[in-house]
Specification:
The complex is a heterodimer of chains A (about 475) and B (about 210). Chain A has about 475 residues and is of the alpha/beta class. Chain A contains 15 helices and 19 strands. The radius of gyration of chain B is 20 Å and the shape is globular. Chain B folds into 2 domains: about 5-180, Aconitase, domain 4; about 185-210. The chains are: A alpha/beta (about 475), B alpha/beta (about 210). At the A-B interface, helix 2, helix 3, helix 5, helix 10 and helix 11 of A face helix 4, helix 7 and helix 8 of B. The complex binds iron/sulfur cluster. Iron/sulfur cluster binds near residues 108, 347, 348, 409 and 413 of chain A.
Chain lengths: ~475, ~210
């Protein structure tokens, strides 16, 4: 009999019952809660007269609607304010721990879970947010759910799930200097497409993935959903355990020893069978820049904007045409000639301390170019912000002409005041370049933090390796 | 949840691949703490010529005459046909809430994003997967024939075309059962309270650190 994949192991450990109809009842160890997808779930709970099954399994924070400037003045938009206040109220009413807007531990859910050790190896982690896949970086089974499922988890601590197929994406060899987890994951999406992982749980493996830091692995798993997979994961190794150690919610003392020995097994067996295996050569990956309105519309910095005529599939051809029109780009333009108007460094993909260090390395001693209207850096949490300030990164950014903001989702999806105006072009470290994502008519190019900083200081896309 | 058995309705075509949840319901409308009222803002950025914000009187806003759902012939449509990877992007359940509030009960496409697909069933919408060629055939028929209607019979798992011919489709047993009976998942899961408790007891022994 073939061995088990990491996904098989996580699934089996959490299967409460096999329903016999192709679905199973799966136990959920951790639910992260934010203000946008939870109000209707709490309302449902109230209407049915139900209580949360396990209050301590939930952790909440507001992130999407919070302002990134003048925090002490509160939220100006009354609709946003009501949503955040509703979360505060629901957490108080049901006794759920919340890192509220004025708490230093507040931040983007997918940043604070791992930061607090609230995300642990071997857990099932859910959140009413598609980028919950981020937490798979710890050898956890983590996936986004809808609001009805948020309510289901609150009420029962379980979800009714159908097991996905398994896919191994092996990134073989080592990436070159200056190539980051973001470039790896964009290259993967460029290869398999935004629906390539649909119906699969993806495990990322291979030497290039083993070499990534835990934060890099979070960036990678974060964008598994952009490849269509609800869950992305990386096997546990010493780095995982080292990262978790000593965090507030991590096990302590004897339980720590017990946990560590259990976590050692969170790898796919050598003889495990995957439904699909894809190999990618790490050495060929260049710094990536998206040119269109879907993350799969991506090329290396040394390439040109593709010509729609070069796609044989008519649906893809039309898609490319529409994307170029929306993006205001001519086919065959060299990527490094594209000028940008705004730069956004942040989001659950790239707002951790290593991301900020990488961007600051490029910003240091340079100035934001004249054609850039605004370049902003939005740390992923209050604690990331504090750490960056201790390292003096805020000063580096401010001296170079960047704005240093308060933590939150910010211009990743522009639910707060940070947004693109119609026609503005942005180098962004976020995860989605959909039409209107960063503001109606706004044009998003997804890049790594270093590439975003490089675009800020030169005014256009440039190979970050030329600046090093 | 409203029960779903059969539906005969006008079909509207959404002829783009990768229609994402930001397009289905733009983020500014996600600030609502309610579950209803999203219909007028379905496809807001494509549907209206101005920029929509919550609280606007949508009946006064300028419609984009080019947008398919604004065309007279598709008024009252309850079935939407779409291309690959419909509903990709975020987990927002506001997307199916908006589609349902607008009046759609069936979507037909070659593929969907997983979370969106799942969310549809929880809101009384039946997302049907058909192969790309069959969907393409439906697009042609809808474009050629004004007032094109389909009948969807969930019990028999068939779509009946105006000429009487049938297309069969697959649907998970469990999801079909819930849709037909209008069942709520939470109620079903709570029938297994003993199993959940037994599982927790067992896990507390093996992984005590997961129980704070
Ligand atoms: S940073 Fe962006 S992608 Fe991440 S949770 Fe916030 S809005 Fe979603």
């Amino acid at each position: 009999m073939a061995g088990k994949t990491l996904y098989d192991k996580l699934w089996q450990q959490h299967e409460v019952r096999d329903n016999g109809d192709g679905t199973s009842l799966i136990y959920i160890d951790r639910q992260l809660v934010h203000e946008v997808t939870s109000p209707q779930a709490f309302e449902g709970l109230r209407l049915a007269g139900r209580k949360p099954w396990r209050v301590d399994a939930n952790l909440a924070t507001p992130d999407h609607n919070v302002p990134t400037t003048d925090r002490d003045k509160g939220i100006a938009d009354p609709v946003s304010r009501l949503q955040v206040e509703t979360l505060d109220q629901n957490c108080t009413d049901f006794g759920i721990t919340e890192f509220a807007m004025d708490d230093i531990r507040q931040g983007i859910v997918h940043v604070i879970g791992p930061e607090q050790g609230a995300t642990l190896p071997g857990m099932t982690v859910v959140c009413g947010d598609s980028h919950t896949s981020t937490h798979g970086a710890f050898g956890a089974l983590a996936f986004g759910i809808g609001t009805s499922e948020v309510e289901h988890v609150l009420a029962t601590q379980c979800l009714i799930q159908k097991k996905s197929k398994s896919m191994l994406i092996s990134v073989d060899g080592q990436v070159g200097e200056g190539i980051t987890a973001k470039d790896i994951v964009l290259a993967i999406i460029g290869r398999i497409g935004t629906a390539g992982g649909t119906g699969y749980a993806i495990e990322f493996g291979g030497d290039a993935i083993k070499a990534l830091s835990i934060e890099g692995r979070m960036t990678l798993c974060n964008m598994a959903i952009e490849a269509g997979a609800r869950a992305g994961m990386v096997a546990v190794d010493d780095k995982t355990i080292e990262y978790v150690k000593g965090r507030p919610y991590a096990p302590k003392g004897d339980e720590w020893q017990q946990a560590v020995s259990a976590w050692q097994d969170l790898v796919s067996d050598a003889d495990a069978d995957f439904d699909q295996v894809i190999h990618l050569d790490a050495t060929t990956i260049q710094p990536q820049v998206t040119w269109g309105t879907s993350p799969e519309m991506v090329v290396g910095i040394d390439a040109r904007v593709p010509n729609p005529a070069s796609f044989s599939d008519p649906v893809k051809q039309e898609g490319a045409q529409a994307a170029l029109k929306y993006m205001g780009l001519e086919a065959d333009t060299p990527i490094n000639e594209i000028k940008v108007d705004k730069v956004f460094i942040g989001s659950c993909t790239n707002s951790r301390i290593e991301d900020l260090r990488a961007a600051a390395d490029i910003a240091k001693g340079r100035k934001v170019a004249d054609n850039i209207k605004i370049a902003m850096v939005v740390p992923g949490s209050g604690l990331v912000k504090q750490q960056a300030e201790q390292e003096g990164l805020d000063k580096v950014f401010v001296e170079a002409g960047f704005e240093w903001r308060e933590p939150g989702c910010s211009m990743c999806l522009a639910m707060n005041a940070d947004r693109l105006e119609a026609g503005e072009r942005c180098a962004s470290t976020s995860n989605r370049n959909f039409e209107g994502r960063q503001g109606q008519g706004g044009r998003t190019h997804l890049v790594s933090p270093a590439m975003a900083a490089a675009a800020a200081v030169t005014g256009h896309f440039v190979d970050v390796r030329e600046l090093n | 949840m409203e029960k779903f058995k059969t539906l005969k309705a006008i079909v509207a075509p959404m002829d783009r691949a990768n229609v994402d949840t930001d397009a289905i319901i733009p983020k500014q409308f996600l600030k609502s703490i309610k579950r209803s009222g999203f219909g007028p803002n379905l496809f807001d950025e494509w549907r209206y010529l101005d920029h929509g914000e919550p609280g606007m009187d949508n009946s006064q806003r300028p419609l984009n005459p080019e947008f398919v759902l604004n065309k007279q012939r598709f008024q009252g449509a309850k079935i939407l046909i779409a291309r690959e990877n419909f509903g990709c992007g975020s987990s927002r359940e506001h997307a199916p809430w908006a589609l349902e509030d607008y009046g759609f009960r069936v979507i037909i496409a070659p593929s969907y994003a997983d979370i969106f697909f799942n969310n549809c069933f929880k809101n009384g919408i039946l997302p049907i997967v058909l192969d790309a060629d069959t969907v393409d055939g439906l697009f042609k028929a809808v474009n050629e024939q004004e007032g094109y209607e389909l009948t969807v019979d969930l019990e028999k798992q068939i779509i009946i075309k105006p000429d009487g011919s049938e297309i069969s489709f697959d649907v998970d047993e469990f999801r079909k059962h819930c849709l037909i009976n209008g069942l709520d998942d939470i109620g079903l899961t709570l029938q297994h309270v003993d199993d959940i408790k037994a599982y927790e007891e067992k896990r507390k022994q093996v992984t005590p650190w997961l129980f704070g």
